[in-house]
Amino acid sequence: MRTDWHIILLIKNVLRCKDTKKFIDFYESMNKLSLTLQKEAINNNTSPEKLAELVNINDSLACLVAPNANSSPETLTQLAKSEKLEICKILVSNPNTPTKTLIEF
Description:
Elements: H1 5-16, H2 20-42, H3 48-54, H4 59-65, H5 73-80, H6 85-93, H7 99-103
Helix pairs in contact: 2-4
């Protein structure tokens, strides 16, 4: 399981702040960022390089990148090493997943 420790530290700092507006602004900006990253993960025009970056952010984004037709075979092979069964199930449907990777499941 990956932990975005830098986000956790930011949240801790915001929670220490007594200013509710700052917390709400922070929360809204994190939601916007999350939605932007999700849109990139499902967009078939997103570059293979960007998709490779997104899979390293968290498992939710990895699940969205797995079926993307623009995902590189290397990224899909990396995802196949995941312990998450749902990611592996999705990889089977992506034609870019190398046959060797599918056989090794």
